[in-house]
Amino acid sequence: MRLAPSLHRIGNDIVAAYLISTPDGVTVIDAGLPGHWSELIAELAAIGRTPAEVRGLILTHGDSDHIGVADRLHREYGVAVYLHPADASRAAGGPKPRSARQRMRLGATAGFLAYTAGKGGLRPRWIHETLPLHDGDTLALPGSPRIIGLPGHSPGSVAVHSAEVDAVFVGDGLTTRDVLTGATGPRPAPFTDDPSEAAASLDAVAATGARWVLPGHGAPWDRGSAAAVAAVRAANA
Q1: How many structural domains does the chain have?
Q2: Does residue 75 belong to any structural domain of this protein?
Q3: Is the pLDDT of residue 15 over 90?
Q4: Residues 183-201: pLDDT tens digits?
Q5: What is the CATH number of the domain that holds 79?
């Protein structure tokens, strides 16, 4: 799905990943679920690209619904996978903290679970070989992605800001569709390790001034990063 010149999405409002395409190649941000492989190949083909032209994959964090095609891209095409070290164990199948009790609505939760299962989410493809990234890094990849530390949802959560495409990719730093309740619009993401820390981290997202705010769950937001963060805080009030 084309969002803007050089900016594309695969998946849907339940689980999404993104591509930046430039003359230098493609950067993938997040890796969805294992079953998103065919969608990735199709989206690349639609823009005249192949997996061999993917220069790097950046994971915003290590949850299983964000790493789905990472290992395959790495093994079959030698794509470098970047991840904050604090989430490396999580992405490799290590233990996660127990989440607080979540608000749920039956239909939305069932839809999320069914979609995840249908895309291979019950058998995660863990990733064991990653390169470290840290707050403040600018990676030598298409789109010149700059890393913004975004701890809270997980210890190693990051956002990825590309001024070239006027977008900030936020993973689960915020959501525009709560997969457990179906509520839409910018709001805190469920299954967040430390909600207070996650809320504080959003200052850095607002400061990017990016037009596009692109979450791992929910519709793309094109009304600016400051407005998105203000909406999250209003929803959390």
Answers
A1: 1
A2: yes
A3: yes
A4: 999 999 999 999 999 999 9
A5: 3.60.15.10
- Residue position matching structure tokens 């904050």: 84
Q: Can you state the angle between helices 195-207 and 225-235, rounded to 10 degrees?
A: 160
Distance (Å, rounded) from C-alpha 218 to C-alpha 161? 18
Question: Can you give the residue range of the structural domain that contains 8?
Answer: 2-93+104-235
Q: Check if the beta carbon of residue 69 is closer than 8 Å to that of residue 31.
A: yes
CA dist., res. 1 & res. 76, Å (int): 24
Report how far apart, in Å, the C-alpha atoms of 79 and of each of 21, 55, 76, 119 are: 15, 6, 8, 22
For residue 99, being part of any structural domain is answered with no
Q: Which of 99-113, 120-134, 155-169, 177-191 has the lowest mean pLDDT?
A: 99-113
110 found inside a domain = yes
Confirm if 12 and 177 have CB atoms less than 8 A apart. Answer: no
Strand partners, 202: none
- Identify the residue whose tokens are 């979609």: 115
pLDDT at 103: 87
pLDDT band, residue 97 (cuts 50/70/90): confident
pLDDT greater than 80 at residue 237 = no
Return phi, psi of residue 34, to 5°. Answer: -55, -35
Tokens 């692109």 belong to 214
What mean pLDDT value characterizes the chain?
Answer: 97
* Distance in angstroms (rounded) separating the CA atoms of residues 12 and 52: 24
Residue 98 falls within a domain, yes or no? no
